[in-house]
Amino acid sequence: MMPELGKYAVAVLSAYGATAVLLIVLVTATLLRGRRVRDEMQRTEARGRKDA
Amino acid sequence: MSLWEYANPVKFLRLSERVLPWLWALAVLCLASGLAWGFFGTPDDFRQGSTVKIIYIHVPAALMAINGWFMMLVASLIWLIRRHHVSALAARAAAPVGVTMTLIALITGAVWGQPMWGTWWAWDPRLTSFLILFLFYLGYMAMWSAIEDPDTAADLTSVLCLVGSVFAILSRYAVNFWNQGLHQGASLSLDKEKNVADVFYHPLLLSIAGFVLLFLALVLYRTGTEIRVRRTRALRARQGAGV
Question: Which residues contact B183 (CB under 8 A, 6 or more apart)?
Fold first, then answer.
């Protein structure tokens, strides 16, 4: 149930909206880069083992 | 067992893999319940109206923006004194998280300030020192990206971090140093009399716990990523050299 925000509804909702967007972007970018880097490291390790 | 054991990247990664699932889960739980409690379960303030609900994101984000820089300061000092790579990488990993927290604090502060102070921005001591802290975060991240040699980058960014700490301290204590600013005093204090009312205080504490846990989870995860980047680079250099 949405609380009654009155004349400040735009201010409150835009503050929460901007925060949600920034946090989602940060967490998603962090996880995607982490996964990409982990895959790259595993590929490099595998190449090293093959060369050896 | 010593804390310095975790300066070993392998031990650090092993520990972070054990701890991270719990940190993520607790962060989501505290954030979701703190923000939902604050947004849906608290009344309007008699002066601020419903804009008081912005406190549950503005205060925790500002707290993490400043304390994130202090965490980077400690990690940078460890790098400068003991030359542990993990600490330099942890400082690097924390910067994007800290800059996001600073940006959230600046945006939510401006959105709150417009209806309450009648302006989005004022050159008030706390706001100005916070903006400078934001610029320091950007400069810190740019310096890491611009310098190719990782040890040189760690040295120079550590020095920048020491300098920026002045503004982190100013951001924290500006409301106590200068009285002429628009920004009100701290919302939280060890002195119970100076705290916000209990009805706002408890969801605020839960929300702060959520932001702290999210910060820790992100920094731990990102430090692991930086360690892997470093290892990949070292492996490639070795493979390229035919070792």
Answer: B124, B125, B126, B127, B174, B175
DSSP B134-175: HHHHHHHHHHHHH-SSHHHHHHHHHHHHHHHHHHHHHHHHHH
Residue ranges of alpha helices (H) inside B3-124 are 9-41, 55-82, 85-117
Residue B119, chain A, CB below 8 Å: the answer is no
Contact B219, B70 (CB under 8 A): no
B128-157, pLDDT tens digit by residue?
889 999 999 999 999 999 999 999 999 999
Give, in degrees to the nearest 5, the angle at Cα B145 between B143 and B147: 70
Q: Do B228 and A38 touch (CB under 8 A)?
A: yes
Q: Do A3 and B236 touch (CB under 8 A)?
A: no
Q: How far apart are CA B129 and CA B175, in angstroms?
A: 11
Which domains are present in chain B? 8-236 (1.20.120)
